[in-house]
Task: structure prediction
Amino acid sequence: MPRTYEAVYIFDSTLEDAAINDKINRFNGLLHAKAQPETAHWGRRQLAYSIGAKDNGYYVVSKFETEPATLPEYERALRLDDGVIRYLITLHEHEVGAPPQSEEDLAAATRRDDDDDDED
Amino acid sequence: MRRPTKSCPFCESRVRWVDYKDDRTLGRFITDQGKILPSRLSGVCARHQRQLATAIKRARFLALIPYIRGHQA
Result:
C-alpha cells in the first residue's frame, strides 16, 4: 500500500541551482512514484546552528507517495550524497483529508478544558 | 481558587496538526534558551502540546530553530 511522505532536504548552499535540481530529479527517480513529487524550494537560508563548517543551506521540501519498500534505497542515496547536509523524511498522512475542526469540536474541547480545571 | 482558563492558541486558530516547518509559530513556544515552553505557561491543550513537542524536535534537527539559543560553539 503506497503511503504519503514528506521529505526536507538541506543542500550545500555553495551548489549551483542546476546541480540541486539534478540531485532532486535523481532522488525522485529512485522513488518510482506514479505521480510527480511536489517540490517546494525555500532557497538559501541561514541555519539556526552551524552543521559541520556550514552556516547556510538550500532547503527543499518534497511531498510524494510511494511504497515503503522503496525507501531504504532512496535513503541510502541521500546519506551517501555529499551535497546533502541533512534530510528528514516524515509520514504525511494525517494532513491529508483531515477536516478542519468544527464549531462543535471546539466547544467540546473547551468544555473538557473547563472540567480539567475544576479538578485542581 | 480557580485559575483563569487559558485557551489553546492552536485550537483557537483551528490548527488541526502542528507543522514542524513553520518556525515562526514554533518560535512562540520556546523559551529564550530554546527550551520547549510548558503548556501550563502557554495554555496549549494536551493534544497540541504533544504535536508541538514533536514539531519542535523536528525543527531543531532541520536547523530551523536552535537547540540552545545564544550558544557559541
User: Anything to note?
Assistant: Chain A is about 35% helix and 40% strand.
